[in-house]
Please model this.
Amino acid sequence: MFKGILIEKDDAGYRAAVEDIDENRLPEGDVTVRVAYSSLNYKDGLAITGKGPVVRKFPMVPGIDIAGTVESSSHPDCRPGDRVLLNGWGVGETHWGGLAQKARLKGEWLVPLPAAFSERQAVAIGTAGYTAMLCVMALERQGVAPADGEIVVTGAAGGVGSVAVAVLSKLGYTVVAVSGRPDEAAYLKQLGASEVLDRSVFSSPGKPLGKERWAGAVDVVGSHTLANVCATTRYRGVVTACGLAGGMDFPSSVAPFILRGVTLVGIDSVMCPRPERLIAWQRLACDLDIAKLGLITHEVALAEAIPTAAQLMAGKVRGRVVVDVNR
Model:
């Protein structure tokens, strides 16, 4: 038996609770991992609270991030005792995830935990930080350099935004953070933001084109925010889009793309190929100031993850939430 958060949906309704789970109930997989830490991401918040149709099979253990040690394996690349890491691949949606003391997974989903990080640090970065790194790598591939101008990061006080601000500033970019929480301005400047703007500047319907300002962008919000970011991006600037906290719609026009040559790059972290994942984690080991993880992260116990998920959905959580599944 092991403890985990189990989400169920039946005639009695939708509910999430910490339960004792028989190991025989673990799903199919060729690697069993003894989980040390998981985390709470926006998708986990949707799953636990039931505020979005994230979970596709019931019952389900949420948790799209896993860091732990291989307990048993029939996969050639995974041996008992290996420290491993998982982000995405549908865990917590179609396959049991990391908010439990054990997980059974496909070995091809796992990557070696970088030597630079402890299990807790790796999960503190998690899918959010790995997604932020994919955004930074996309900006670089498109030729956006620090000398080109300001990079705007929306939803900056959240997990993706916090890591994006920290990484971009360390790489020498001038970062402008956007947040709906004015009390987080000092926090965002500690991470490296040169300026903090209120999200109200971006969240209302705007014009097809606005005054050019951004050389690049990391957007986790979508909807009007993404449209306004595109409308104010400079000639041949690059916008990376990786989230939908403000909505799945995109009420924009073609004007930024055909009149200013703006590039909009979609970032998918869930099914991202393994080679790119490995590069992203290698880059995080070099380009993220580990000391800033202390600012970004706070820890909760497994049972605390359920009420914390509700706070996350209410926009009351700063940065990253690490879950110690063993307490």
In short: The mean pLDDT is 95. The first strand starts at residue 2 and ends at 10. The two ends are 15 Å apart (CA to CA). The longest helix spans residues 119-141.
